Request: fold
Amino acid sequence: MTPREAMDRAEEVGLDLVEVSPNANPPVCKIMDYGKYQYEKNKRAREARKKQTKIVLKEMQFRPDTAEHDYQFKKRHVEDFLKNGWKVRATVRFRGRELLHTQLGKNMLARLVEDLAELAEVEQPPKMETRVMSMLLTPKSS
Reply:
């Protein structure tokens, strides 16, 4: 039908004439309540966002000379993060001459992986970036 006829028909019914496919030959239009359509579309998008899972990344910082009690305390926090299903970036920061002893940081991260073996798996192995050595742990999939 002609565009004028379609507009008259939509006006009779009290709805809007919406162009569905402008690139088609001839263009395809639909008679609908456009406000209601927009509302429904936004509602579906909101529902989809609600069901979406967000990936949370937590970071725990260590030092090469972290004391035993402090290590245990931080390890417990990392365990809690992993139990919540969050990813954890474990970092060891080096200052000054500590940079000569990067094996201490590597040993600490290896110990952390060993202690959390039943909860976590290594997504990114220890990697040195400037003065920081870091690795990424993810919760083990059951």
